[in-house]
Amino acid sequence: MFWKIVGGLLLAWVAFMVIGSIVGFLAKAVFWIAVIGGGVFVGAAAYGALKSNKRKQLRS
Questions:
Q1: Which of 6, 14, 52, 58, by CA, is between 20 and 30 Å from 41?
Q2: How confident is the model at residue 40 (pLDDT cuts 50, 70, 90)?
Q3: Under DSSP, is residue 32 helix (H, G, I), strand (E, B) or coil?
């Protein structure tokens, strides 16, 4: 009975380790995708602002 409990705990520990590594990898991947997407968005916004600034002039 003791070895069944130890085996069950070991199996649960291994399962949590595998699930944790998968979730950790996905969290890192989503983070870097968000960082790259944010950089592209900021670059596109800056390019659009500079490009539209040349075409339009504010009258005062």
A1: 58
A2: very high
A3: helix
What's the token pair of residue 25?
A: 């990898």
For the stretch 8-46, what's the b/e string if a residue is b when 16 or more beta carbons lie within 10 angstroms of its beta carbon?
eeeeeeeeeeeeeeeeeeeeeeeeeeeeeeeeeeeeeee
Distance CA 35, CA 41 (A): 10
pLDDT tens-place string over residues 4-29:
999 999 999 999 999 999 999 999 99
pLDDT value for 59 = 60
Segments in the chain forming alpha helices (H) = 2-55
